[in-house]
Amino acid sequence: MTGNERLMAAALDLITSRYRLARHQIGAALLDADGDIHVGLHLDAMVGRAAVCAEAVALGVARMATNAPIVLAAAVRHPKPDEIGPARLVPPCGLCRELLLDHAPGISVLVADAPGPRAVPLADLLPHKYIGTKWSA
Ligand SMILES: [Zn+2]
Fold first, then answer.
1. For 36-88, how does the pLDDT look when each residue is reduced to its tens digit (9 = 90+)?
2. Active site members
């Protein structure tokens, strides 16, 4: 199993086992430079903007475990009961693009493509990232 496949399998395994309608729909997995995988589960909320993405949870989990650079991300969305088709790879939302690039500037993400998923530098998906003054870029 390749690193990409391991990462997708970790995200898929998580959301397959923890899916709950309107509670947990996405599982994310982050690969660090040491080869370890850290997973996170999407947390939905009654107030939509209080929800927390799976990538953000996975990033927190990773940072609890290691300071190793995070190099690759994958997120898998579980279908709702009335949707047809399998769980699928999804790219990070805009907020997660900002957050992941703040904490992992060299990260790539797995995106769905033909004939199969491919890793894309996240910076390519957010070419004009916000740069604040909290820390040096
Ligand atoms: Zn997100």
1. 999 999 999 999 999 999 999 999 999 999 999 999 999 999 999 999 999 99
2. 55
Contacts of residue 54, defined as CB under 8 A and 6 or more positions apart, other chains included, come to 11, 15, 26, 27, 28, 40, 41, 42, 75
Ligand 1 center to 27 CA (angstroms): 11
Is 132 inside any structural domain?
no
Domain CATH for 107: 3.40.140.10
pLDDT single digits (tens) 117-127: 999 999 999 99
- Burial code (b: 16+ CB inside 10 Å, e: under 16) for 10-48 equals bbbebbeeebeeeebbbbbbbbbeeeebbbbbbbeeeee
Q: What is the pTM of this model?
A: 0.95
Cross-strand partners of 88: 77
Residue type for 9, please? A
Specify if 70 maps to a domain: yes
Q: For residue 91, report the distance from its CA to the centre of ligand 1, in Å.
A: 9
**Residue 136: inside a domain:** no
